[in-house]
Structures are given as structure tokens and as C-alpha cells.
Amino acid sequence: RRIAVLRERAPGETRVAATPETVRKLIALGAEVRVETGAGVSASIADADYQTAGAMIGSAAEVLGGAQIVLGVQGPGPALLQGVAPGAWVVAILDPFAQRTQIDAYAAAGLESLAMEFMPRITRAQSMDVLSSQSNLAGYKAVIASADVYGRAFPMMMTAAGTISAAKVFVMGVGVAGLQAIATARRLGAQVSATDVRAATKEQIQSLGAKPIFVENVAGIVGEGAGGYATEMSEEYQKAQAELVSSHIAKQDIVITTALIPGRAAPRLVTDPQIATMKPGSVIFDLAAPQGGNVEGTVADQIVERHGVKIIGYSNTPAHLPADASALYARNLFNFLSAFWDQEAGGPVLDVEIGEAIRLTQSGRVVHPRLLG
Ligand code: NAD
């Protein structure tokens, strides 16, 4: 099977879909791997390292010619893919709701496109879960970036010149990114609290040594829906949550927001009047910036100052840790391809459950239920 690894073309994308380690492993499975010149440069991987691992290096056209599987971080432009084998796989984070035209073009070109972010959250697919691997790093980076622009230290310090008190960090949304943000802020010595709409997270927050901040005794809370994801909350709950957050947030130095609801815009968790109650010099990192933001006033890729509070949001947080984000993403792709590798077929053959979950286009048509009707 011929596998092509492209250089990413999206602005600000620093990651790459394969590393020398995964190239070596793909070759051991029986694949032929071709990597586009310069594909790994922004992730600190030289062409020569891929070559040593056994890959052929070439131009996009050389790499893609006759390729049966194309690996990307983001979906490659359809015009680039003209020379690939008929029905070739395009495996990447395809962002189909925002990139619908591109998905339609894959269909028209007869490509089989597979959206890695649709991987079901089931035990056997954990090692292929790109949302988890990238969110985990994003949660870490959100804390580090906040600490960097915060004008004070995180840990309590007792010095000859006097004592510095510990920073208070509040994490809103305790999924994969939020858990890592809590752990990272704790390691830096901050006093950490956290909240979520899913009651199950309370224990996880405590087990990391942080304080849970939860709305109690409000009717109509479900919180947890299909696949362990959050659901939209009742109006009553939202009001109670806003009040609780208002009184808590005024005492915080750093707020990290990570709340997402699948298939919807990110919920608004912090309003401008709430920001006005925070101390000058405080920092908010909005990890939901690419989905519209949890915080009023977030502008992706800028540090916005409102009421003396700095608001940060990146459009692509994992891309700020290119080497590790690529290493984990590339392993997710390898784990996926190798789990389905069929020696007789000489390549991967998907089963029904995972195939139906991630396949967007096939045989000239858009086939994913979430994109139809
Ligand atoms: P996510 O990125 O979809 O959302 C981040 C967090 O924000 C979630 O915890 C969500 O409950 C929370 N949130 C949503 N609305 C909120 C609001 N109004 N206020 C406060 N918090 C709010 O979440 P995720 O990191 O993808 O995790 C989602 C679920 O998937 C979790 O239950 C997680 O344990 C589970 N999971 C399972 C697997 C697996 O089994 N393979 C892998 C990863 C995650």
C-alpha cells in the first residue's frame, strides 16, 4: 500500500501526520511511505530523518502519484489530490461542518475521506482518539501560556523579602483538556478549583487535588448525554451556574475555559460584566476560541485586554506544541491503520462500527449521516 504524508498548508498549522517512528512502523506493516519535502520542518523533523526511517522524499506530485492512503493533520485541498489512486483514503481532521465544500469535492473526486475527529469514544479506539491526544496537550499549553503573560508567580513563595501568595486558577469544563489544565496548574503550585455540568467530574476534580465548584439543588439537570458528552442545560440551571460563577470568578487570578457541546457553538460561560469584577492583571485562556469561544470578547490568536484582564485564545492550541502534538497525532494514525491492517488485502480494511462513524465520503457520494438531510 502506498501512503503519502503531506506538508500542511493551512496557516498556523505546524503539525505533521507522521514521524520517523510511525514511518518505520508503517513500513514494517508492509506499506511504502512517501513524505513531502519539508513536511516535518515546523515540528523539528528533518527530511533526512524520514529518509533514514525508510521514506521516499519528494514534491507533492511525486508523493501523491498513485497513493492509496493520504495522511494529513487538516484535510488537504482537493486540487492537490489529482494524481492519487482511484478511491484513495484521505485520513485527517476534516472539520466537515466548516469545510463542507472540501468534503463535497472529495466525494466528487471519488475519494474515501475519513474524519479522525469522529472516532467513537469506545475503549478499543482510545489509542486512535485524536481529540483526546490533542486536547490533553492543549490543556497543558493553556496553563503555560497563561502563566507566561500573568504578571505574578503561580506558587506560594516564602522569601527573605516577604511572602508571595499562590495564584488562584479556575478551570471551567473538565473534559480531557480541563483535567490536564488542573494537573498542570497544580504542578505549578496554584490553588485550583474547577466546574463542569457533568456531575461525574466532581470526583475527578477532587482526585487531582482541586476544589469542585458545582451548582446544587437545581431541577432539570441531566448534564451528561450520549457518549459521555455534555448536553445543553435548562434555563434555570444556566442562571444558577452564572450566579455561582460570578461570585467565584471575582476572586480568581487565572480562568481556563474548555467547555464544548458537540455539534453546537461553544456555550458562553464568562460575560463582560463578570470580567469587569476580576482583578486587573488576571488572565483568561479561552480554549473554545476556535468554536466561537466561552468568553465574551475572545479574539482568536490575539491577547485582548478588557477591564485590565488579559483574554487569550488560540485558533489552534495543539499547533503551539508542534513536536509532541505531531508525535501523538502520528501515533493515533498509526494505531488506527495498524488495528485494521489486513495482510491478505495488503492494507487496512475497516469494520462496520468504526467505518460508519468516521467515513464521510465513498464511491462518489457523501455518506455520513450527520452530513445528510
Ligand atoms: P469536550 O471537549 O466535548 O467538552 C469539554 C468539557 O466541557 C466537558 O467535560 C463538558 O462536560 C464541559 N461542558 C460543556 N458545557 C459546559 C458548561 N456549560 N459549563 C461547564 N462545563 C461544560 O469534552 P471531552 O474532553 O471531549 O470529553 C467528553 C467526554 O468524553 C468525557 O466524558 C470524557 O471522559 C469522555 N472521553 C472518553 C474517551 C474514551 O472512552 N475513549 C476518550 C476521551 C474522552
UniProtKB/TrEMBL annotation:
UniProt signal peptide: none
Keyword terms: NAD, NADP, Nucleotide-binding, Translocase
Substrates-to-products reaction catalysed: NAD(+) + NADPH + H(+)(in) = NADH + NADP(+) + H(+)(out)
EC number: 7.1.1.1
PANTHER family attached to this UniProt entry: NAD(P) TRANSHYDROGENASE, PROTON-TRANSLOCATING NAD(P)(+) TRANSHYDROGENASE
Species: Novosphingobium kalidii
Gene3D superfamilies: NAD(P)-binding Rossmann-like Domain
UniProt cross-references to Pfam families, sorted A to Z: AlaDh_PNT_C, AlaDh_PNT_N
Top class in the EC scheme: translocase
Domain Alanine dehydrogenase/pyridine nucleotide transhydrogenase NAD(H)-binding: residue ranges: 147-313
Stated family: Belongs to the AlaDH/PNT family.
Chain coiled-coil ranges: none
Protein name: proton-translocating NAD(P)(+) transhydrogenase
NADP among keywords: yes
Role played: The transhydrogenation between NADH and NADP is coupled to respiration and ATP hydrolysis and functions as a proton pump across the membrane.
Domain annotation Alanine dehydrogenase/pyridine nucleotide transhydrogenase N-terminal: ranges: 4-138
